[in-house]
Each structure stands twice: as structure tokens, then as C-alpha cells.
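task queued by scheduler; priority normal; single chain, no ligands, no partner chains; default sampling; output format set to C-alpha cells
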Amino acid sequence: MSVRSSATTDVTGEATRAVVQEFLAARIAGDTGRLVGIFAERVDWMLAENPGVPWIRPRSTGAECAAQFVELTRYTVPEDARASVDVLLVDGADAVLTGRVSGTVRATGKSFEGPYALRLTVEGGRIVRHHLYEDGLAIAEACAA
């Protein structure tokens, strides 16, 4: 376990919080160009594999990560998409968001809903880690014909 001074943690935490807020604003706006700039060139992207869900796949570049949001709107009904942030915790370079997400799959008309947790790590003002934990089963069931 490393020990950081509170002054360093506060400055890093403030910078992390600012990047996370920018990420959320770009995500809400659907601004893929801005998202590409928020993600680092190489990203540690993790989402549980879910072969029945077309927008869930491995990614590793900032452009691929930003494209996930475009793919999500292609396969779901944007007007039905909802996401809440109940908690945003920041500790130095790391941030964890928890909340609920819901949507409707365009091809099937079926809905999904459930909790999520998102861990982001910011280095050099850009997101280098994006680990999302969500109810993959509910999403897969909504994608199934």
C-alpha cells in the first residue's frame, strides 16, 4: 500500500474529477470527437464479454472506446436510454461511479435495466482505464429474439 500526501491526492483528485465530469458531459452530448480526446491512445478497457450483445466487445484505443457510444445508439433506442449516477467517488487518479442504466434494444423492442459500477483511471488528463460492471444477462436477454 502506498501512502500519498493529502495535498498531492487533493490536486490529483480534483484533476480526475474534472476529467470524469468532462467524460460524462461528452457522453451525454454524444460528442464522439470529444470522447476520443478524453480517452488516452491506449486504454485498459474491460467489459464482461457478452457475445449476444453487438456493442460489447474488446477495445483498446481511444477511438474504439469512443465508438462504443456510437454503436450503443445504433443498436438501442436513444430516446429510451437512461443512466443515473448515484455516487461518484474519487481517490487520486481513480474514480468509481455507481448508478442504474436502462434502455431498449432496437432489433427486439425488449428493454433492459439494472445497476452498474464504472471504474475510471485518469493519467495525464486522459482516461487510461475504463472497467464497467453491469447486468450483462439482462442486456443479453433484451438482445435475444
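post-processing summary
- DSSP finds four helices and six strands in the chain.
- Helices lie at 6-29, 32-38, 62-75, 136-143.
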